[in-house]
Amino acid sequence: MNIFSSFDYYEVDYNNNLFKYLHYIRMDTICEVIYVTMKDVLTGELLTFDHSGINWIRKMNLTSAIVPLPNEGIAQNQ
Asked: What superkingdom does the record give (predicted)?
């Protein structure tokens, strides 16, 4: 069962380094080592993580991150 969606954004803590805004690409097993490949949507870079170095992966909640400021982009009619 695949719990990832290629349409969601994820953040990964890999060897105590935080990577954000990643799309899931695929998971491979090579010589009994699991690799997770993700794409950084800001740079277009493909990143491959060794499963043993991943501390956690979580889906980002972007709806709470994009909140307009009061009166942003609204002309004041007085």
From this structure: Bacteria
